[in-house]
Design goal:
Blueprint lengths: L1 E4 L6 E6 L4 E6 L4 E7 L5 E7 L4 E6 L3 E8 L5 E9 L5
Antiparallel strand pairs: 1-2, 2-3, 3-4, 5-6, 6-7, 7-8
Amino acid sequence: MLFVELTETKTTVLIAFCENGVVKLYNLLSLQPHHEYTNPGGYIYGVSLNPLTNEILVACEDGFIRVLTIDEEYGLKIRFASSVRTFEER
């Protein structure tokens, strides 16, 4: 789980990573799930947050590291930004 403070809206959200590859974004004010993203890479092995850009790096079962962002412009949504193949697969 990650707590992320969003710069534009000044809100704090909780991001939960489930075993089945689902990423859920919770609004901490309402304590309700706000958005759900299904990771195409399967099981998530590791997660890291860049606090300067709010980019989330997700290490996936298929050997890719995916970059996710939180889109504040059209409501709080998790968006796929890019992916990188891990060193072992190159």
